[in-house]
Amino acid sequence: MNIGQEVLEMLKQEITDVEYNRYIKHLKYDAKNSTGDLAIYYAPNALVLNWIKNKYGEKIAHL
């Protein structure tokens, strides 16, 4: 499991299954452009991106 998957697994423990399955599990980790301090994910569309940023952006940043 890579760091990108680990972050999503940690978040999964803190949110509802419905929200995880509807939004978070569709994020794709970009290992090539991520660094030790910064994990980059791609959302499938702008709606999902904005929802995740508004609802869980800070939580993800602190994991």
What's the short version?
With 63 residues, the protein is mainly α.
For the secondary structure, the number of strands is 2
Q: Identify low-pLDDT runs.
A: none
The overall pLDDT average reads 92
Structural class, judged by helices and strands? mainly alpha
Helix content: 40-55%
How much of the polypeptide forms β-strand, as a percent range?
5-15%
Q: What integer value in Å does the Rg equal?
A: 11 Å
How many H/I helices?
A: 3
Principal-axes geometry comes out as: globular
CATH topology: GMP Synthetase, Chain A, domain 3
Oligomeric status:
single chain
Instruction: Please indicate the count of domains.
Output: 1
Judging by the overall fold, what is the CATH architecture? 2-Layer Sandwich
Q: Can you identify the CATH class?
A: Alpha Beta
Strands in their spatial order, largest beta sheet: 1-2
- H/E element order: HHEEH
Largest beta-sheet details:
2 strands, antiparallel
Distance between the termini: 16 Å
Descriptive overview:
The chain has one domain (3-61): 2-Layer Sandwich (GMP Synthetase, Chain A, domain 3), CATH 3.30.300.180. It has a two-stranded antiparallel ribbon. The model has no long low-confidence stretch (mean pLDDT 92). It contains 3 helices and 2 strands; from the N terminus they run ααββα. The protein is 51% helix and 6% strand. The protein is mostly helical and 63 residues long.
